[in-house]
Amino acid sequence: MLHLLGVNLPDQKLVQYALPLFYGIGQKTALKVLATLSIHKTCKIADLSEPQVNQLSTLLSDMKIESDLRKQIRANIMHHRSIGSYVGRRHAMGLPVRGQNTKNNAKTARRLNGRWLKAEKREYSSSTRSIIPSAESPFESFFNRKWF
Amino acid sequence: MAHRFLASTPLLSRTSLSLTARARAAVPAQYANYVTASAVVMAGGKAKKAAPKVKAQSNSFRKKKAADDDKGESGSGGATRLNEKYYKPSVPVKVEEFLPSTATKEHVGQVLGFPSTVIPALAQTAYPTLLSEQFELIKPAALVVRESTVSFLEKVDKAMKTPSSQSRIVLTGEAGSGKSALLLQTVSHCLSAGWIVIYVPKASTWMNSSFAYNKVANTTSFVQPLLASNLVGQIQNVNKSVLDKITTSETAMVGRHEVEKGTKLSALLEVGVKDQFAAQDVMEVFMKEIGAQNGIPTLIAVDEVNSFFRPSQYLSQDGKELDPEHLKLPKLFLNYISGKSTFKHGAIVAATSDTLLANKSEVLDVTLGVKEVSPYKRLSQTILPWTQGLTSVEVPNYTREEAKGVFDYYKKANIFFDAASEPLFLNKFITSNGNPRKFFTSCAKGI
Protein backbone atom coordinates (compact mmCIF):
# COMPACT_ATOMS: atom_id res chain seq x y z
CA MET A 1 0.00 0.00 0.00
CA LEU A 2 1.69 3.19 -1.18
CA HIS A 3 0.74 6.26 0.82
CA LEU A 4 1.09 9.35 -1.32
CA LEU A 5 -0.09 12.89 -0.54
CA GLY A 6 -2.78 11.75 1.84
CA VAL A 7 -4.18 8.93 -0.32
CA ASN A 8 -3.58 5.18 0.01
CA LEU A 9 -2.82 3.50 -3.31
CA PRO A 10 -3.25 -0.31 -3.23
CA ASP A 11 -0.18 -2.21 -4.45
CA GLN A 12 -1.95 -4.58 -6.86
CA LYS A 13 -3.78 -1.79 -8.69
CA LEU A 14 -2.58 -0.58 -12.09
CA VAL A 15 -1.06 2.88 -11.80
CA GLN A 16 -3.41 4.04 -14.57
CA TYR A 17 -6.44 3.20 -12.42
CA ALA A 18 -4.94 4.10 -9.04
CA LEU A 19 -4.20 7.75 -9.90
CA PRO A 20 -7.92 8.68 -10.31
CA LEU A 21 -8.29 7.84 -6.60
CA PHE A 22 -6.91 11.36 -6.06
CA TYR A 23 -9.55 14.05 -5.98
CA GLY A 24 -8.94 16.09 -9.12
CA ILE A 25 -7.38 13.37 -11.27
CA GLY A 26 -9.54 11.50 -13.78
CA GLN A 27 -8.82 9.00 -16.58
CA LYS A 28 -7.30 11.56 -18.96
CA THR A 29 -5.01 13.25 -16.45
CA ALA A 30 -3.88 9.84 -15.22
CA LEU A 31 -2.76 8.91 -18.76
CA LYS A 32 -1.00 12.26 -19.12
CA VAL A 33 0.89 11.59 -15.89
CA LEU A 34 1.90 8.14 -17.12
CA ALA A 35 3.09 9.58 -20.41
CA THR A 36 5.15 12.31 -18.73
CA LEU A 37 6.87 9.82 -16.45
CA SER A 38 7.23 7.08 -19.14
CA ILE A 39 5.34 4.50 -17.12
CA HIS A 40 3.84 1.66 -19.21
CA LYS A 41 0.09 1.10 -19.00
CA THR A 42 0.28 -2.32 -17.35
CA CYS A 43 2.55 -1.11 -14.53
CA LYS A 44 1.23 -1.83 -11.04
CA ILE A 45 1.86 0.36 -7.99
CA ALA A 46 4.14 -2.34 -6.58
CA ASP A 47 6.29 -2.25 -9.76
CA LEU A 48 7.15 1.44 -9.38
CA SER A 49 10.77 2.09 -8.44
CA GLU A 50 11.83 4.53 -5.72
CA PRO A 51 12.94 7.29 -8.13
CA GLN A 52 9.68 6.87 -10.07
CA VAL A 53 7.65 7.28 -6.87
CA ASN A 54 9.58 10.45 -6.06
CA GLN A 55 9.01 11.84 -9.57
CA LEU A 56 5.30 10.97 -9.27
CA SER A 57 4.97 12.71 -5.92
CA THR A 58 6.76 15.84 -7.22
CA LEU A 59 4.51 15.94 -10.28
CA LEU A 60 1.34 15.48 -8.23
CA SER A 61 2.28 18.13 -5.68
CA ASP A 62 2.63 20.63 -8.54
CA MET A 63 -0.94 19.87 -9.68
CA LYS A 64 -4.03 21.30 -7.99
CA ILE A 65 -5.60 18.22 -6.33
CA GLU A 66 -7.23 17.12 -3.07
CA SER A 67 -7.63 19.86 -0.45
CA ASP A 68 -6.29 22.68 -2.65
CA LEU A 69 -8.88 21.89 -5.30
CA ARG A 70 -11.69 21.57 -2.79
CA LYS A 71 -10.77 24.98 -1.34
CA GLN A 72 -10.83 26.54 -4.79
CA ILE A 73 -14.28 25.12 -5.61
CA ARG A 74 -15.65 26.23 -2.26
CA ALA A 75 -14.16 29.70 -2.71
CA ASN A 76 -15.77 30.03 -6.16
CA ILE A 77 -19.22 29.21 -4.82
CA MET A 78 -18.80 31.36 -1.70
CA HIS A 79 -17.91 34.26 -3.98
CA HIS A 80 -21.30 33.99 -5.69
CA ARG A 81 -22.97 33.89 -2.30
CA SER A 82 -21.11 36.87 -0.94
CA ILE A 83 -21.95 39.10 -3.92
CA GLY A 84 -25.60 38.03 -3.60
CA SER A 85 -25.94 36.66 -7.13
CA TYR A 86 -28.68 34.36 -8.46
CA VAL A 87 -26.12 31.55 -8.74
CA GLY A 88 -25.24 31.95 -5.08
CA ARG A 89 -28.88 31.88 -4.01
CA ARG A 90 -29.58 28.71 -5.97
CA HIS A 91 -26.60 26.98 -4.37
CA ALA A 92 -27.84 27.99 -0.95
CA MET A 93 -31.36 26.71 -1.69
CA GLY A 94 -30.03 23.45 -3.12
CA LEU A 95 -31.77 23.96 -6.48
CA PRO A 96 -30.53 23.85 -10.10
CA VAL A 97 -28.17 26.70 -10.87
CA ARG A 98 -27.97 26.73 -14.64
CA GLY A 99 -31.55 27.47 -15.58
CA GLN A 100 -32.93 23.92 -15.60
CA ASN A 101 -36.63 23.20 -15.11
CA THR A 102 -37.77 22.53 -11.55
CA LYS A 103 -41.38 21.50 -12.22
CA ASN A 104 -40.11 17.95 -12.44
CA ASN A 105 -36.63 16.43 -12.44
CA ALA A 106 -34.36 18.46 -10.21
CA LYS A 107 -33.37 15.47 -8.16
CA THR A 108 -29.58 15.65 -8.58
CA ALA A 109 -29.55 19.36 -7.75
CA ARG A 110 -31.69 18.87 -4.66
CA ARG A 111 -29.34 16.11 -3.53
CA LEU A 112 -25.99 17.68 -4.36
CA ASN A 113 -26.17 21.46 -4.68
CA GLY A 114 -25.37 23.46 -1.60
CA ARG A 115 -23.06 20.88 -0.03
CA TRP A 116 -20.15 23.27 -0.45
CA LEU A 117 -21.95 25.93 1.56
CA LYS A 118 -22.99 23.50 4.26
CA ALA A 119 -19.37 22.45 4.61
CA GLU A 120 -18.47 26.09 4.95
CA LYS A 121 -21.16 26.59 7.59
CA ARG A 122 -20.04 23.47 9.42
CA GLU A 123 -16.48 24.71 9.49
CA TYR A 124 -17.50 27.98 11.05
CA SER A 125 -20.25 26.45 13.14
CA SER A 126 -18.74 26.81 16.61
CA SER A 127 -17.57 29.91 18.44
CA THR A 128 -16.37 31.88 15.46
CA ARG A 129 -19.85 32.56 14.07
CA SER A 130 -20.40 35.78 15.89
CA ILE A 131 -16.99 37.17 14.92
CA ILE A 132 -17.24 36.50 11.17
CA PRO A 133 -19.97 38.62 9.60
CA SER A 134 -22.64 36.64 7.77
CA ALA A 135 -22.56 36.87 4.00
CA GLU A 136 -26.34 37.19 3.95
CA SER A 137 -28.26 40.39 4.64
CA PRO A 138 -30.95 40.11 7.39
CA PHE A 139 -33.83 39.96 4.86
CA GLU A 140 -32.03 37.37 2.73
CA SER A 141 -31.81 34.89 5.59
CA PHE A 142 -35.61 35.26 6.09
CA PHE A 143 -36.45 34.77 2.39
CA ASN A 144 -34.02 31.87 1.96
CA ARG A 145 -35.58 29.70 4.62
CA LYS A 146 -36.90 26.61 2.89
CA TRP A 147 -39.80 26.01 5.23
CA PHE A 148 -41.53 27.89 8.06
CA MET B 1 -27.98 -37.05 -51.86
CA ALA B 2 -26.25 -35.51 -48.89
CA HIS B 3 -29.20 -35.93 -46.56
CA ARG B 4 -29.06 -39.71 -46.95
CA PHE B 5 -25.54 -39.65 -45.55
CA LEU B 6 -26.68 -37.48 -42.67
CA ALA B 7 -29.50 -39.86 -41.84
CA SER B 8 -27.21 -42.87 -41.74
CA THR B 9 -24.46 -41.36 -39.61
CA PRO B 10 -24.91 -40.55 -35.92
CA LEU B 11 -24.79 -36.86 -36.85
CA LEU B 12 -28.57 -36.53 -36.50
CA SER B 13 -28.48 -37.77 -32.92
CA ARG B 14 -26.44 -34.66 -32.00
CA THR B 15 -29.51 -32.66 -31.00
CA SER B 16 -31.09 -35.42 -28.93
CA LEU B 17 -28.12 -35.98 -26.65
CA SER B 18 -26.24 -33.33 -24.69
CA LEU B 19 -22.56 -32.80 -25.43
CA THR B 20 -21.39 -34.36 -22.17
CA ALA B 21 -23.60 -37.38 -22.70
CA ARG B 22 -22.20 -37.87 -26.20
CA ALA B 23 -18.67 -37.50 -24.85
CA ARG B 24 -19.32 -40.15 -22.24
CA ALA B 25 -20.97 -42.44 -24.78
CA ALA B 26 -18.12 -42.08 -27.25
CA VAL B 27 -15.31 -42.98 -24.86
CA PRO B 28 -14.21 -46.56 -25.65
CA ALA B 29 -14.44 -49.27 -23.01
CA GLN B 30 -10.74 -49.38 -22.18
CA TYR B 31 -10.89 -45.70 -21.20
CA ALA B 32 -13.95 -46.18 -19.03
CA ASN B 33 -11.81 -45.81 -15.91
CA TYR B 34 -10.18 -42.64 -17.26
CA VAL B 35 -10.50 -40.22 -14.38
CA THR B 36 -10.35 -36.58 -15.33
CA ALA B 37 -9.96 -33.71 -12.93
CA SER B 38 -13.40 -32.48 -13.90
CA ALA B 39 -14.93 -35.86 -13.02
CA VAL B 40 -13.57 -35.50 -9.49
CA VAL B 41 -14.87 -31.93 -9.27
CA MET B 42 -18.28 -33.01 -10.59
CA ALA B 43 -18.52 -35.71 -7.91
CA GLY B 44 -17.70 -33.17 -5.24
CA GLY B 45 -20.12 -30.68 -6.74
CA LYS B 46 -23.00 -33.14 -6.73
CA ALA B 47 -22.44 -33.85 -3.03
CA LYS B 48 -22.54 -30.11 -2.32
CA LYS B 49 -25.68 -29.66 -4.39
CA ALA B 50 -27.52 -32.26 -2.28
CA ALA B 51 -27.39 -29.91 0.73
CA PRO B 52 -29.86 -27.00 0.37
CA LYS B 53 -28.08 -23.80 -0.50
CA VAL B 54 -28.80 -20.88 1.79
CA LYS B 55 -26.94 -17.86 0.51
CA ALA B 56 -27.03 -14.55 2.30
CA GLN B 57 -27.50 -11.61 -0.03
CA SER B 58 -24.09 -10.03 -0.21
CA ASN B 59 -23.94 -6.50 -1.54
CA SER B 60 -20.17 -6.40 -1.74
CA PHE B 61 -18.81 -6.44 -5.29
CA ARG B 62 -15.32 -7.11 -4.00
CA LYS B 63 -16.08 -10.49 -2.47
CA LYS B 64 -15.00 -13.19 -4.85
CA LYS B 65 -15.68 -16.83 -4.07
CA ALA B 66 -12.59 -18.99 -4.42
CA ALA B 67 -14.56 -21.92 -5.85
CA ASP B 68 -17.80 -21.18 -7.64
CA ASP B 69 -20.18 -24.06 -6.80
CA ASP B 70 -22.38 -23.65 -9.84
CA LYS B 71 -19.53 -23.71 -12.27
CA GLY B 72 -17.64 -26.52 -10.55
CA GLU B 73 -17.86 -28.74 -13.62
CA SER B 74 -16.05 -26.46 -15.99
CA GLY B 75 -12.54 -27.76 -15.45
CA SER B 76 -10.68 -25.00 -17.31
CA GLY B 77 -8.56 -23.42 -14.58
CA GLY B 78 -5.74 -21.72 -16.43
CA ALA B 79 -4.94 -20.89 -20.01
CA THR B 80 -3.23 -24.22 -20.66
CA ARG B 81 -5.91 -26.58 -19.38
CA LEU B 82 -8.49 -27.52 -21.96
CA ASN B 83 -12.13 -27.67 -21.02
CA GLU B 84 -13.00 -31.35 -20.98
CA LYS B 85 -16.64 -30.60 -21.64
CA TYR B 86 -15.76 -29.48 -25.15
CA TYR B 87 -12.64 -31.46 -26.06
CA LYS B 88 -12.32 -35.21 -25.97
CA PRO B 89 -9.06 -36.20 -24.27
CA SER B 90 -6.78 -37.44 -27.03
CA VAL B 91 -4.43 -40.35 -27.45
CA PRO B 92 -0.75 -39.58 -28.15
CA VAL B 93 0.02 -40.28 -31.80
CA LYS B 94 3.32 -41.57 -33.06
CA VAL B 95 4.63 -39.32 -35.83
CA GLU B 96 7.83 -39.12 -37.85
CA GLU B 97 10.11 -36.16 -37.49
CA PHE B 98 9.88 -33.05 -39.64
CA LEU B 99 13.41 -32.81 -41.00
CA PRO B 100 14.87 -31.20 -44.12
CA SER B 101 14.93 -34.68 -45.63
CA THR B 102 11.25 -35.32 -44.93
CA ALA B 103 9.91 -31.91 -46.06
CA THR B 104 9.49 -33.05 -49.65
CA LYS B 105 6.69 -33.52 -52.20
CA GLU B 106 6.36 -37.22 -51.35
CA HIS B 107 5.43 -36.36 -47.80
CA VAL B 108 2.74 -33.80 -48.64
CA GLY B 109 -0.33 -34.66 -46.58
CA GLN B 110 1.65 -36.36 -43.82
CA VAL B 111 1.63 -34.96 -40.33
CA LEU B 112 5.16 -34.77 -38.99
CA GLY B 113 6.22 -33.83 -35.47
CA PHE B 114 8.96 -31.42 -34.47
CA PRO B 115 12.34 -33.12 -34.09
CA SER B 116 13.56 -33.87 -30.58
CA THR B 117 16.48 -31.46 -31.05
CA VAL B 118 14.11 -28.63 -31.98
CA ILE B 119 11.45 -29.04 -29.28
CA PRO B 120 13.56 -27.69 -26.37
CA ALA B 121 14.43 -24.69 -28.54
CA LEU B 122 10.77 -24.03 -29.39
CA ALA B 123 9.86 -24.37 -25.72
CA GLN B 124 11.95 -21.26 -24.97
CA THR B 125 9.52 -19.06 -26.84
CA ALA B 126 5.81 -19.74 -26.55
CA TYR B 127 3.87 -21.19 -29.49
CA PRO B 128 1.43 -18.82 -31.22
CA THR B 129 -1.75 -18.65 -29.10
CA LEU B 130 -4.32 -20.51 -31.17
CA LEU B 131 -1.85 -23.14 -32.39
CA SER B 132 -0.86 -23.89 -28.82
CA GLU B 133 -4.50 -24.92 -28.17
CA GLN B 134 -4.15 -27.59 -30.85
CA PHE B 135 -0.82 -28.74 -29.45
CA GLU B 136 -2.33 -28.91 -25.96
CA LEU B 137 -5.06 -31.22 -27.21
CA ILE B 138 -2.97 -33.59 -29.32
CA LYS B 139 0.48 -34.37 -28.09
CA PRO B 140 3.22 -34.37 -29.39
CA ALA B 141 3.11 -31.08 -31.33
CA ALA B 142 2.95 -31.83 -35.04
CA LEU B 143 2.01 -30.05 -38.25
CA VAL B 144 1.03 -31.30 -41.67
CA VAL B 145 3.44 -30.96 -44.59
CA ARG B 146 1.66 -28.90 -47.26
CA GLU B 147 2.48 -28.01 -50.84
CA SER B 148 2.98 -24.45 -49.70
CA THR B 149 5.42 -25.73 -47.04
CA VAL B 150 7.53 -27.55 -49.60
CA SER B 151 7.69 -24.64 -52.06
CA PHE B 152 8.34 -22.11 -49.29
CA LEU B 153 11.17 -24.13 -47.73
CA GLU B 154 12.80 -24.41 -51.16
CA LYS B 155 12.76 -20.62 -51.31
CA VAL B 156 14.29 -20.35 -47.85
CA ASP B 157 17.01 -22.85 -48.76
CA LYS B 158 17.93 -20.75 -51.79
CA ALA B 159 18.25 -17.75 -49.48
CA MET B 160 20.91 -19.53 -47.47
CA LYS B 161 23.77 -18.09 -49.50
CA THR B 162 22.30 -14.67 -50.27
CA PRO B 163 22.07 -11.48 -48.19
CA SER B 164 18.95 -11.13 -46.08
CA SER B 165 17.94 -7.87 -47.77
CA GLN B 166 17.09 -9.92 -50.87
CA SER B 167 14.79 -12.33 -49.02
CA ARG B 168 12.33 -10.37 -46.94
CA ILE B 169 9.11 -12.33 -47.07
CA VAL B 170 5.76 -11.71 -45.41
CA LEU B 171 3.23 -14.56 -45.18
CA THR B 172 -0.31 -13.37 -45.80
CA GLY B 173 -3.65 -15.08 -46.09
CA GLU B 174 -7.07 -15.21 -44.52
CA ALA B 175 -7.59 -15.83 -40.81
CA GLY B 176 -6.72 -19.37 -39.82
CA SER B 177 -5.13 -20.31 -43.13
CA GLY B 178 -1.84 -21.52 -41.63
CA LYS B 179 0.55 -18.56 -41.64
CA SER B 180 1.87 -19.06 -38.11
CA ALA B 181 2.06 -22.81 -38.71
CA LEU B 182 4.15 -22.30 -41.85
CA LEU B 183 6.39 -19.93 -39.93
CA LEU B 184 6.84 -22.56 -37.20
CA GLN B 185 7.78 -25.14 -39.81
CA THR B 186 10.33 -22.72 -41.28
CA VAL B 187 11.82 -22.13 -37.83
CA SER B 188 12.02 -25.87 -37.20
CA HIS B 189 13.59 -26.47 -40.62
CA CYS B 190 16.25 -23.80 -40.11
CA LEU B 191 17.05 -25.00 -36.59
CA SER B 192 17.56 -28.53 -37.91
CA ALA B 193 19.72 -27.15 -40.71
CA GLY B 194 21.98 -25.32 -38.24
CA TRP B 195 20.99 -21.71 -38.89
CA ILE B 196 20.95 -19.04 -36.18
CA VAL B 197 17.25 -18.50 -35.54
CA ILE B 198 15.69 -15.48 -33.86
CA TYR B 199 11.99 -16.37 -33.42
CA VAL B 200 9.48 -13.85 -32.11
CA PRO B 201 6.10 -15.60 -31.73
CA LYS B 202 4.12 -12.56 -30.53
CA ALA B 203 5.41 -9.23 -31.73
CA SER B 204 2.23 -7.59 -30.43
CA THR B 205 3.44 -8.02 -26.83
CA TRP B 206 6.37 -5.73 -27.70
CA MET B 207 4.03 -2.91 -28.74
CA ASN B 208 1.09 -3.17 -26.35
CA SER B 209 2.65 -1.30 -23.42
CA SER B 210 3.18 -4.43 -21.31
CA PHE B 211 6.92 -3.91 -20.73
CA ALA B 212 8.59 -1.03 -18.90
CA TYR B 213 10.14 1.63 -21.11
CA ASN B 214 12.62 4.44 -20.48
CA LYS B 215 13.55 7.44 -22.55
CA VAL B 216 17.10 7.62 -23.84
CA ALA B 217 18.55 11.01 -22.90
CA ASN B 218 18.80 13.62 -25.68
CA THR B 219 16.95 11.51 -28.22
CA THR B 220 13.35 10.76 -29.14
CA SER B 221 13.95 7.00 -28.66
CA PHE B 222 12.84 4.71 -25.89
CA VAL B 223 14.40 1.52 -24.59
CA GLN B 224 12.58 -1.54 -23.19
CA PRO B 225 15.24 -3.07 -20.91
CA LEU B 226 13.35 -6.09 -19.57
CA LEU B 227 12.04 -7.05 -23.00
CA ALA B 228 15.52 -6.84 -24.50
CA SER B 229 16.93 -8.93 -21.67
CA ASN B 230 14.23 -11.60 -22.14
CA LEU B 231 14.89 -11.72 -25.87
CA VAL B 232 18.64 -12.05 -25.34
CA GLY B 233 18.03 -14.95 -22.96
CA GLN B 234 15.72 -16.66 -25.46
CA ILE B 235 18.21 -16.31 -28.31
CA GLN B 236 20.94 -17.70 -26.13
CA ASN B 237 18.92 -20.76 -25.12
CA VAL B 238 17.62 -21.48 -28.62
CA ASN B 239 21.00 -21.24 -30.38
CA LYS B 240 23.33 -22.52 -27.67
CA SER B 241 25.51 -24.82 -29.77
CA VAL B 242 25.80 -22.55 -32.77
CA LEU B 243 26.75 -19.37 -30.93
CA ASP B 244 29.87 -20.89 -29.38
CA LYS B 245 31.42 -21.00 -32.84
CA ILE B 246 31.28 -17.25 -33.47
CA THR B 247 33.35 -14.61 -31.69
CA THR B 248 33.20 -10.83 -31.66
CA SER B 249 35.40 -9.04 -34.17
CA GLU B 250 36.19 -5.94 -32.08
CA THR B 251 35.95 -4.53 -28.56
CA ALA B 252 32.56 -3.09 -27.78
CA MET B 253 30.96 -1.11 -24.96
CA VAL B 254 27.62 -2.55 -23.85
CA GLY B 255 25.98 -0.50 -21.10
CA ARG B 256 28.53 -0.29 -18.31
CA HIS B 257 30.45 -3.39 -19.43
CA GLU B 258 33.27 -3.72 -21.87
CA VAL B 259 33.32 -6.77 -24.13
CA GLU B 260 36.72 -7.59 -25.54
CA LYS B 261 37.50 -8.68 -29.05
CA GLY B 262 37.29 -12.44 -29.47
CA THR B 263 34.61 -13.15 -26.86
CA LYS B 264 32.18 -15.91 -27.79
CA LEU B 265 28.73 -14.61 -28.70
CA SER B 266 27.14 -16.79 -26.01
CA ALA B 267 29.26 -14.93 -23.43
CA LEU B 268 28.19 -11.62 -24.97
CA LEU B 269 24.54 -12.60 -24.62
CA GLU B 270 25.16 -13.63 -21.01
CA VAL B 271 26.03 -10.00 -20.23
CA GLY B 272 22.62 -8.95 -21.54
CA VAL B 273 20.81 -11.58 -19.52
CA LYS B 274 22.44 -10.52 -16.26
CA ASP B 275 22.16 -6.76 -16.78
CA GLN B 276 18.87 -5.75 -18.42
CA PHE B 277 20.06 -2.18 -18.96
CA ALA B 278 22.90 -3.43 -21.16
CA ALA B 279 20.62 -5.79 -23.09
CA GLN B 280 19.72 -3.34 -25.87
CA ASP B 281 23.38 -2.66 -26.66
CA VAL B 282 24.06 -6.39 -26.49
CA MET B 283 21.33 -7.00 -29.11
CA GLU B 284 22.77 -4.38 -31.44
CA VAL B 285 26.31 -5.71 -31.19
CA PHE B 286 25.02 -9.28 -31.56
CA MET B 287 23.05 -8.54 -34.73
CA LYS B 288 26.01 -6.71 -36.24
CA GLU B 289 28.36 -9.62 -35.50
CA ILE B 290 26.15 -12.38 -36.89
CA GLY B 291 25.44 -10.22 -39.92
CA ALA B 292 29.13 -9.67 -40.59
CA GLN B 293 30.09 -13.35 -40.63
CA ASN B 294 29.23 -15.57 -43.60
CA GLY B 295 29.68 -19.03 -42.15
CA ILE B 296 26.29 -19.54 -40.55
CA PRO B 297 23.11 -18.04 -42.07
CA THR B 298 20.58 -16.26 -39.85
CA LEU B 299 16.81 -16.40 -39.87
CA ILE B 300 14.66 -13.71 -38.27
CA ALA B 301 11.12 -15.08 -37.89
CA VAL B 302 8.49 -12.64 -36.61
CA ASP B 303 4.85 -13.53 -36.07
CA GLU B 304 2.12 -10.83 -35.74
CA VAL B 305 4.43 -8.52 -37.68
CA ASN B 306 1.54 -6.16 -38.48
CA SER B 307 1.96 -4.69 -34.99
CA PHE B 308 5.37 -3.35 -36.13
CA PHE B 309 3.69 -1.29 -38.84
CA ARG B 310 1.26 0.78 -36.81
CA PRO B 311 1.58 3.18 -33.84
CA SER B 312 2.32 1.33 -30.62
CA GLN B 313 0.35 1.67 -27.39
CA TYR B 314 3.26 3.34 -25.66
CA LEU B 315 2.98 7.10 -25.11
CA SER B 316 5.63 9.74 -25.70
CA GLN B 317 6.11 12.44 -23.09
CA ASP B 318 3.64 14.61 -25.02
CA GLY B 319 0.96 11.96 -24.63
CA LYS B 320 1.00 10.88 -28.29
CA GLU B 321 1.30 7.24 -29.38
CA LEU B 322 4.85 6.21 -30.21
CA ASP B 323 5.73 4.96 -33.68
CA PRO B 324 7.71 1.69 -33.74
CA GLU B 325 10.77 3.54 -35.01
CA HIS B 326 11.00 5.37 -31.69
CA LEU B 327 11.30 2.11 -29.75
CA LYS B 328 14.84 0.82 -30.04
CA LEU B 329 14.23 -2.93 -30.09
CA PRO B 330 11.40 -2.94 -32.66
CA LYS B 331 13.41 -0.46 -34.71
CA LEU B 332 16.37 -2.83 -34.72
CA PHE B 333 14.15 -5.53 -36.20
CA LEU B 334 12.48 -3.10 -38.58
CA ASN B 335 15.90 -2.20 -39.98
CA TYR B 336 16.39 -5.82 -41.00
CA ILE B 337 12.80 -6.29 -42.18
CA SER B 338 12.96 -3.19 -44.37
CA GLY B 339 16.43 -4.02 -45.69
CA LYS B 340 18.23 -1.03 -44.18
CA SER B 341 20.52 -3.45 -42.34
CA THR B 342 21.38 -6.85 -43.72
CA PHE B 343 22.92 -10.17 -42.82
CA LYS B 344 25.54 -11.45 -45.25
CA HIS B 345 23.69 -14.77 -45.39
CA GLY B 346 20.17 -15.18 -44.18
CA ALA B 347 16.49 -14.47 -44.60
CA ILE B 348 13.74 -12.53 -42.90
CA VAL B 349 10.36 -14.25 -42.74
CA ALA B 350 7.37 -12.64 -41.09
CA ALA B 351 3.72 -13.59 -40.72
CA THR B 352 0.74 -11.31 -40.30
CA SER B 353 -1.96 -12.10 -37.79
CA ASP B 354 -5.68 -11.37 -37.78
CA THR B 355 -6.06 -12.26 -34.12
CA LEU B 356 -6.44 -8.82 -32.60
CA LEU B 357 -8.10 -5.84 -34.25
CA ALA B 358 -5.77 -3.57 -32.28
CA ASN B 359 -2.81 -4.96 -34.25
CA LYS B 360 -4.14 -4.39 -37.76
CA SER B 361 -1.88 -2.36 -40.02
CA GLU B 362 -3.59 -0.75 -42.98
CA VAL B 363 -0.26 0.49 -44.37
CA LEU B 364 1.14 -3.04 -44.52
CA ASP B 365 -2.02 -4.50 -46.03
CA VAL B 366 -2.07 -1.85 -48.75
CA THR B 367 1.65 -2.14 -49.56
CA LEU B 368 1.47 -5.92 -49.81
CA GLY B 369 -1.57 -5.69 -52.02
CA VAL B 370 -3.80 -7.56 -49.60
CA LYS B 371 -6.23 -4.70 -49.22
CA GLU B 372 -7.34 -1.90 -51.50
CA VAL B 373 -8.06 1.49 -50.12
CA SER B 374 -9.25 4.73 -51.65
CA PRO B 375 -6.37 6.68 -53.25
CA TYR B 376 -7.57 9.75 -51.38
CA LYS B 377 -6.93 8.09 -48.03
CA ARG B 378 -3.73 9.34 -46.50
CA LEU B 379 -1.51 6.53 -45.22
CA SER B 380 0.96 7.18 -42.42
CA GLN B 381 4.02 8.71 -44.06
CA THR B 382 6.25 7.75 -41.16
CA ILE B 383 5.41 4.05 -41.39
CA LEU B 384 5.12 3.70 -45.18
CA PRO B 385 8.90 3.81 -45.89
CA TRP B 386 9.45 0.75 -43.69
CA THR B 387 7.21 -1.43 -45.84
CA GLN B 388 9.07 -1.01 -49.13
CA GLY B 389 10.53 -4.04 -50.85
CA LEU B 390 8.65 -6.75 -48.96
CA THR B 391 7.56 -9.84 -50.89
CA SER B 392 4.19 -11.29 -50.05
CA VAL B 393 3.55 -15.04 -50.07
CA GLU B 394 -0.06 -16.07 -49.76
CA VAL B 395 -0.85 -19.14 -47.68
CA PRO B 396 -3.89 -20.92 -49.13
CA ASN B 397 -6.45 -23.16 -47.41
CA TYR B 398 -5.99 -26.94 -47.28
CA THR B 399 -6.17 -28.93 -50.49
CA ARG B 400 -8.19 -32.11 -50.28
CA GLU B 401 -5.08 -34.28 -49.93
CA GLU B 402 -3.70 -32.21 -47.08
CA ALA B 403 -7.05 -32.13 -45.30
CA LYS B 404 -7.36 -35.91 -45.61
CA GLY B 405 -3.93 -36.32 -44.03
CA VAL B 406 -4.91 -34.08 -41.14
CA PHE B 407 -8.22 -35.90 -40.74
CA ASP B 408 -6.42 -39.27 -40.51
CA TYR B 409 -4.12 -37.80 -37.90
CA TYR B 410 -7.08 -36.58 -35.83
CA LYS B 411 -8.66 -40.00 -36.25
CA LYS B 412 -5.54 -41.69 -34.83
CA ALA B 413 -5.59 -39.17 -31.96
CA ASN B 414 -9.22 -40.18 -31.30
CA ILE B 415 -10.60 -36.67 -30.86
CA PHE B 416 -13.86 -37.21 -32.74
CA PHE B 417 -17.11 -37.50 -30.86
CA ASP B 418 -18.78 -39.08 -33.88
CA ALA B 419 -17.41 -42.05 -35.81
CA ALA B 420 -14.68 -40.86 -38.18
CA SER B 421 -15.61 -41.78 -41.74
CA GLU B 422 -15.39 -40.53 -45.32
CA PRO B 423 -18.79 -38.72 -45.23
CA LEU B 424 -17.74 -37.04 -41.97
CA PHE B 425 -14.52 -35.92 -43.60
CA LEU B 426 -16.41 -34.50 -46.58
CA ASN B 427 -18.80 -32.74 -44.22
CA LYS B 428 -15.99 -31.13 -42.23
CA PHE B 429 -13.92 -30.23 -45.28
CA ILE B 430 -16.77 -28.60 -47.17
CA THR B 431 -18.29 -26.72 -44.27
CA SER B 432 -14.92 -25.28 -43.25
CA ASN B 433 -13.93 -24.60 -46.89
CA GLY B 434 -10.57 -26.18 -46.10
CA ASN B 435 -9.64 -23.39 -43.66
CA PRO B 436 -7.21 -25.13 -41.28
CA ARG B 437 -8.42 -23.45 -38.08
CA LYS B 438 -12.10 -23.98 -38.87
CA PHE B 439 -11.35 -27.56 -39.86
CA PHE B 440 -9.70 -28.17 -36.49
CA THR B 441 -12.50 -26.61 -34.41
CA SER B 442 -15.08 -28.48 -36.44
CA CYS B 443 -13.28 -31.80 -35.87
CA ALA B 444 -12.36 -31.25 -32.23
CA LYS B 445 -15.42 -29.43 -30.93
CA GLY B 446 -17.99 -30.71 -33.37
CA ILE B 447 -19.22 -27.22 -34.28
TrEMBL record, chain A:
Identify one Pfam family in the record. Ribosomal_S13
- One GO molecular-function entry: structural constituent of ribosome
Q: List the record's Gene Ontology CC terms alphabetically.
A: mitochondrion; small ribosomal subunit
Q: Which residues form a coiled coil?
A: none
Key word Ligase present in the record? no
Q: Which SUPFAM superfamilies match?
A: S13-like H2TH domain (SSF46946)
Q: Which superkingdom heads the taxonomic lineage of this protein's source?
A: Eukaryota
Q: Which PROSITE patterns match?
A: RIBOSOMAL_S13_2
What are the BP-aspect GO terms?
Answer: translation
Keywords assigned by UniProt, alphabetized: Ribonucleoprotein, Ribosomal protein
Q: Can you tell me which family this protein belongs to?
A: Belongs to the universal ribosomal protein uS13 family.
Q: What is this protein called?
A: Ribosomal protein S13
Q: Which organism is it from?
A: Linnemannia elongata AG-77
From TrEMBL, chain B:
| Protein name per the record | Small ribosomal subunit protein mS29
What keyword terms does UniProt attach to this protein?
Mitochondrion, Ribonucleoprotein, Ribosomal protein, Transit peptide
Where is it located? Mitochondrion
Which parts of the sequence are annotated with region: Disordered? 54-83
Presence of keyword Ribonucleoprotein: yes
Q: Give the main location.
A: mitochondrion
Q: Which family does the record assign?
A: Belongs to the mitochondrion-specific ribosomal protein mS29 family.
